[in-house]
Amino acid sequence: MKLNLTVAEVTQRIRERSAETRQAYLQQLDKMAKRPPGASRMGCANVAHSFAAMPANDKFKVVKEHVPNIGIVTAYNDMLSAHAPFQHFPDLIKEEARKHNATAQVAGGVPAMCDGITQGMPGMELSLFSRDVIAMSTSVALSHDVFDATLMLGVCDKIVPGLLIGALHFGHLPTVFVPAGPMTSGLSNSEKSHMRVLAAEGKVGREELLEAESKAYHGPGTCTFYGTANSNQMLLEAMGLHVPGTAFINPGSEFRNELTREAVRTVLDITRNKNFTPIGHVVDERCIVNAMIALLATGGSTNHLIHWVAVARAAGIIINWDDFCTLSDVVPLIARVYPNGEADVNAFQEAGGPGYVIRELLDAGLMHEDVATVRPNGIREATGIPAPKEDGSIVWTVAGASKDDSVVRPVPAPFSPNGGIKVLRGNLGRSVIKISAVPEDLHVIEAPAKVFDSQESLIAAFQAGELNMNVVCVVRWQGPHANGMPELHKLTPPLKALQSKGFDVALVTDGRMSGASGKIPAAIHVSPEAAAGGPLAKVQDGDIIRLDAITGRLEVLIDPEDWAGRVPSKMPHSLRESNNQGMGRELFAGLRHNVTSAEEGACTWL
User: Fold this and answer.
1) Is residue 157 part of a domain?
2) Domain that holds residue 570
3) What is the pLDDT of residues 178-206, one digit of tens each?
4) Is 223 marked as a binding-site residue?
5) Fewest CB atoms less than 10 Å from the CB: which of 41, 230, 483, 571?
6) φ, ψ (nearest 5 deg) of residue 562
């Protein structure tokens, strides 16, 4: 199928925009790839330190025989459901490496924090920056420079982008990402969400709410809704960085273990193959565009309009929100997974999963097929769905027709003709909105503003009955400079409650929502942020704001001269102080000071 013209044009403008930075990146990558193996180029003391703890036979193989040595970077900890399954992966990987005359070492661990645990808590203000801490931790792990390939063990929100940014700074190494899979389905996401609304309205108490939450989040594996964590997995499939089809296989089975063993075999095949494809060559402009398209086609997390800008930049590629918006106009929405539908990721996998989506997009000319992946047969291999054979090996079958057209549909009969991501522009700055779950009659909201300096103050106003009206809630001082740009998920239940009463409600913020706003029109990531002198600092209670997702406008309806003459508010001193005190936030002051804007990827390392 001929490549869609818009996809081709966006790819070309990214290629042209990135020509200088990409060339510099590839020159450095190729220089590193041409060096002798680590044990050969290092001094004797360096080598002895590197392999002192290895079993004797492994040490002999890597030092004397120069067999490939795989570096494992793991996000394992046993308090996070998504990462707990990684506990035993290193032993399995080492065992499989030995079978294939190779060795493996845990190069290092990276921190992994959970937005679900820190939601609405001070620790949430470390969340976005943890991505770059993870990238730096990955670099520290690999800086020992004795590895011929790497396996990246991580799943969730900031962990995968951080690992990917770190890996791309070691782009000369073949790299495969190893997922752990989602937890089995418990209480449905829609039932859980409904219970949260009831709790916000005071109709159920803490005991009932906790019981519901515990039934939803009940075991090892990723949360089952299609948030940032599971969007990560979809994007890695579309980029060809996984063993095909491994994203949404539940943890704890022998088949899951066999898929991990296949990751070892896959990375060794790259290392030993004449067609050498390190991760820096796999992740090119076409690969990044494929990830963007997969995100749009599945209604994935808006966080990736920040994270994938940073990921691309790590490979010398420059993308922006306009690229996403242009692609969104031609990429249909062909999957509905909660919060954009009722199905969870297990139902998504059962209906066809990533293999179905990628097959549909390739067949429609909406993805680049001429790309390198971690497998020899290219991205078309990602259309296969893996299953165990009787002998324990893996067989891939091509995804057939949708097994549930309420979850996945073919490109000619989509849920929506576009991907549901819009860039909004106007006198309030630039922002993004995810409208894939917002009913069409709510794509335009015009109402008086109610301005808040924190999500806590909005919740307090809701509880006091002060928001029972048509309202655009403006929550500012939530950007990366101000407080690290936390998720604002705790706003969803009260805003849904207001909407259920029949009020026109919208949210405008320089913070993040990751698409969890659901049916609430939410202009998020407003840039420039208020703390950087952005126009949100000029909004006052009662100003009429128009959010128009049809025309792509976000405006305060005020005389231009009056608006130009209005003096911006300053971030309250008490807020600025609190953002620098407690829960380790003092250590992140330099990151808040140096971070780029949300549209530039909220990078602390550029």
Assistant:
1) yes
2) 423-600
3) 999 999 999 888 888 888 889 888 999 99
4) yes
5) 41
6) -65, -40
